[in-house]
Specification:
Blueprint lengths: L18 E5 L3 H11 L4 E5 L2 H10 L4 E5 L7 H8 L10 E5 L4 H9 L4 E4 L4 H63 L5 H31 L8 E4 H11 L1 H6 L3 E5 L4 E4 L1 H18 L5 E8 L3 E8 L33 H11 L3 E5 L6 E8 L7
Parallel strand pairs: 1-2, 1-3, 3-4, 4-5, 7-9
Antiparallel strand pairs: 6-8, 9-10, 10-12, 11-12
Helix pairs in contact: 2-3, 5-6, 7-9, 9-10
Length: 383
């Protein structure tokens, strides 16, 4: 039958036209399909299933037109063998057969056929269905190539980031040591020298934060963060973190107040200290001088919620959904020109979720922010 003659399609290909394998034991059928498609595609023929499988093993094809009724090995058996090595997106197969009963069509689809063309063939139908499968395969190939390139780029990024960060840590430690020794050598009563050393220390701390946060980001993205969940006394954790930031608070003439901090949770000690440290650091960073940062714990039936309450400007309503995003830069700025990478809260969120907890923030109408972390409580009687 003669059908509508479609326009010859233009394919997104590099060098050669798509390759089609026509499998049929009747030479005239192979020749008919070949002449119908040869102006647009690169055609290869196979006289039976065994020859077809050999060609598939040794050559690349974009589509197979496969007859069902063939001696020695029928098309359904050939299709089943092809599907052991090639998925329907890797290598589309269109069955071509004079068998019109639904039973064979269903068996073919179940075996992994992408489409079905009945004999006698309609030229327009053949061209349209072949073009549809080739287009679908090319779209899949483009997507797969893009994904592979993205994976390669991401792997390279992580490798370079890890190498660069680790290579920076060693000289940074040396500069830290030099800064510490210089304080014993120079005249610390000289305000100029003290100011220079303080600036040097602040810069080193900022560089160290950047390196550590980028290393954490790379480890989180690669799924390489290890979490050791264990019963923890929140009071101990909070005292450790608060003492670490006492000097920072004094420099801003501020205070860290601990209020009702008792409770036991299941968490990772190092990661919980990291998360709480980030929240306390941000509270001090974004609050004005002579303010108070309060840490408290609220209990419910199954959890403890650790709160860090500051007296800063809060977060604008239209920016709150960006709070825990990667590299988020919001309009509130540190009050003493402290630096920020925009990664701290994103990392904190990932860490808390790895500990089976939740993290969030609320903003009272009276001002300030309350950043909170909720973690599973520990049954002390079961310890």
């Amino acid at each position: 039958m003669m059908g509508i003659q479609p326009t010859i399609p233009e394919f997104d290909i590099d060098d050669a036209p798509p390759k089609i394998l026509i499998v049929d034991d009747e030479p005239i059928n192979r020749k008919l399909l070949g002449r119908l498609l040869e102006k647009t595609y690169n055609i290869t023929e196979a006289a039976d299933g065994f020859e077809a499988l050999e060609l598939v093993r040794n050559h690349h094809f974009d589509l197979i037109l496969l007859d069902i009724m063939m001696p020695r090995m029928n098309g359904l058996d050939v299709l089943a063998e092809i599907r052991t090595t090639h998925s329907s997106t890797d290598l589309p197969v269109i069955l071509v057969s004079a068998l019109r009963d639904n039973h064979h069509i269903v068996k073919g689809i179940e075996a992994g056929a992408n489409d079905y063309i009945p004999k006698p063939i309609d030229n327009g139908v053949v061209r349209a269905r072949v073009m549809a499968q080739i287009k679908a395969k090319q779209a899949f190939d483009i997507q797969r190539k893009a994904f592979a390139e993205l994976e390669e780029a991401n792997t390279l990024k992580n490798r370079l980031l890890s190498i660069a960060s680790h290579d920076l840590k060693s000289p940074l430690s040396s500069v830290y040591m030099a800064e510490s020794l210089l304080r014993y050598v120079v005249d610390t009563e000289d305000p100029t020298a003290t100011s220079i050393l303080d600036t040097m220390k602040a810069t080193l701390d900022h560089m160290n934060t950047i390196i550590n946060e980028f290393l954490d980001m790379a480890a989180l993205q690669a799924g390489k963060i290890k979490i050791d969940l264990q019963p923890l006394d929140l009071e101990d954790v909070i005292y450790i973190v608060a003492s670490h930031y006492e000097l920072t608070a004094e420099e801003k003439e501020s205070a860290i107040v601990l209020d009702n901090i008792k409770g036991y949770v299941t968490a990772d000690l190092e990661r919980l200290q990291q998360v709480l440290g980030n929240l306390v650091s941000n509270a001090l960073k974004y609050s004005p001088p002579n303010s108070t940062v309060t840490i408290n714990v609220v209990a419910d039936a199954d959890n403890y919620t650790l709160q860090v309450i500051d007296q800063g400007p809060g977060i604008p309503v239209d920016e709150r959904d960006q709070l825990f995003s990667e590299f988020s830069k919001l309009s509130p700025r540190p009050t003493a020109e402290e630096s920020s990478t925009g990664l701290g809260l994103w990392i904190a969120k990932q860490m808390v979720e790895l500990m089976h907890g939740e993290i969030g923030a609320t903003f009272p109408e009276t001002g300030g922010s309350i950043f909170w972390v909720t973690l599973p409580s520990v049954d002390l009687d079961a310890l």
